[in-house]
Design brief:
heterodimer; A: mainly beta; 4-stranded antiparallel β-sheet; 0% helix; 48% strand; B: 118 residues; mainly beta; 7-stranded mixed β-sheet
Chain lengths: 112, 118
C-alpha cells in the first residue's frame, strides 16, 4: 500500500498569513495513464470532509483561489495564501493512483 | 442537487453484523463508482471500499477484506455496506462518497455512526 506522510501535523497560523502543508508518498503517484491522482481535503470541526483540489493542482468549483496545490511524483504541497478564520480544520492529502486509496494522517490548522 | 444520505448505523456487539445504506439522488447513480470512507472517533480518514458503476469490480481496504461487502442496487439508487464479524476497531463514522475519474468527488454524505461495543 502507498503510505502518505504529512508534515507538519499541527500548524498554528496568524490570520492573513500564509500556510503550507507537505505530503509525501512512499512511491510515485504517477498513474499508467499519465495523471497523478493526488487530492487535498479539508475537514472543518463537526463536518464531513470537503474536497478542495484534485490531480495535484486543480481546484474544485467553489474553492477559493487562496488555496493552491503543487508538486510532482512523490512530493506535494497545499498552500493557503492568506489564512482566514473559516480555514480552521484538519487537512488531508489522499492518493487515488492505486487501490487501496490512502490518506495522510491529517494536519490540524489552527489560528494563533 | 446531489444528495447522499447514509443510514443503518447503530450499536452492535463484537462479532455482530450491520448493513449500511446510502441513498443517492440528484445524479445518474448508475453511471458512477461509489466509495465508503470511515473515520474513527478523533482519528483520521480511512478509505474502506469502492464499487464500479455497474458493480463489476470491487476493492477493499486490507482491514475489512473478507468481513465487509460493498454492493449497489442501481434500480433503487442505493449503495450498501454489509459489515460482518465486527470488531471494536470498526467503530467509526461511515461516509459514502461519489466517485469520479481518478478519485473521490466532492459529494459526501453526512455519515452514520457505527459503534461496536459489548
Amino acid at each position: 500500500d502507498i503510505v502518505m506522510t504529512q508534515t507538519p501535523l499541527s500548524s498554528p497560523v496568524t490570520l492573513g498569513q500564509p500556510a503550507s502543508i507537505s505530503c509525501r508518498s512512499s512511491q510515485s503517484l504517477v498513474h499508467s495513464d499519465g495523471n497523478t491522482y493526488l487530492s487535498w481535503l479539508q475537514q472543518r470541526p463537526g463536518q464531513p470532509p470537503r474536497l478542495l483540489i484534485y490531480k495535484i493542482s486543480n481546484r474544485f468549483s467553489g474553492v477559493p483561489d487562496r488555496f493552491s496545490g503543487s508538486g510532482a511524483g512523490t512530493d506535494f504541497t497545499l498552500k493557503i495564501s492568506r489564512v482566514e478564520a473559516e480555514d480552521v480544520g484538519v487537512y488531508y492529502c489522499t492518493q487515488a493512483t492505486q487501490f487501496p486509496y490512502t490518506f495522510g494522517q491529517g494536519t490540524k490548522l489552527e489560528i494563533k | 442537487q446531489v444528495q447522499l444520505v447514509e443510514s443503518g448505523g447503530g450499536v452492535v456487539q463484537p462479532g455482530g453484523s450491520l448493513r449500511l445504506s446510502c441513498a443517492a439522488s440528484g445524479f445518474t447513480f448508475s453511471s458512477y463508482g461509489m466509495h465508503w470512507v470511515r473515520q474513527a472517533p478523533g482519528k483520521g480518514l480511512e478509505w474502506v471500499a469502492f464499487i464500479r458503476y455497474d458493480g463489476s469490480n470491487k476493492y477493499y481496504a486490507d482491514s475489512v477484506k473478507g468481513r465487509f461487502t460493498i454492493s449497489r442496487d442501481n434500480s433503487k439508487n442505493t449503495l450498501y455496506l454489509q459489515m460482518n464479524s465486527l470488531r471494536a476497531e470498526d467503530t467509526a463514522v461511515y461516509y459514502c462518497a461519489k466517485g469520479r475519474t481518478g478519485g473521490l468527488d466532492v459529494y459526501w454524505g453526512q455519515g452514520t455512526l457505527v459503534t461496536v461495543s459489548s
